[in-house]
Design brief:
The protein is α+β, with helices and mostly antiparallel strands and 147 residues long. It is built from three helices and six strands, in the order ααββββαββ.
């Protein structure tokens, strides 16, 4: 199960990377097609807007690299007793895979939420073990299993 969850997270990152690359290509094309017109101010404004978008894209690419770095640190083969990066945590309310924020992984028997270690619920879970209780948003929960 953890292998499938890790693959799901990698697919999420790869899809996001492809989208960002496509956006970058489109921005580069847009910048190249901004031809000098008789309205010089309009041309400069258009170029500035494209460059701002490129800067935003650059930040998103940096964040994506940080996400890749987190995924590379995950070792799903070591047995664990306490919740840590790469843990599959089953609670009385939901199941979580502590890795990156990649959304819900649906499988035959339910859903596992792929969450970042910096997510509020992950911060509550990290370091806890099977049988421990915690409260999230005022709702008491118990850790049923840590894999």
């Amino acid at each position: 199960m953890k292998k499938a969850l890790l693959e799901f997270c990698w697919e999420y990152v790869d899809e996001r990377s492809a989208r960002l690359k496509k956006q970058g290509d489109e921005l580069q094309e847009s910048l190249g097609s901004e031809t000098k017109s008789s309205a010089g101010d309009k041309h400069e404004t258009g170029r500035a807007m494209v460059q701002l978008e490129q800067e935003k894209l650059g930040q998103q690419l940096q964040e994506l690299e940080a996400t890749r770095s987190v995924l590379n640190k995950i070792n799903i083969d070591n047995p664990v007793n306490k919740v840590r990066l790469g843990s599959l945590v089953k609670t009385s309310m939901a199941n979580y895979f502590v890795a990156i924020s990649a959304g819900a992984f649906k499988y035959d028997n339910g859903v596992v939420y792929c969450i970042s270690a910096s997510a509020p619920i992950a911060k509550l879970l990290i370091g806890k073990e099977k049988g421990d209780s915690f409260s999230f948003n005022g709702t008491p929960q118990t850790i049923l299993d840590v894999v």
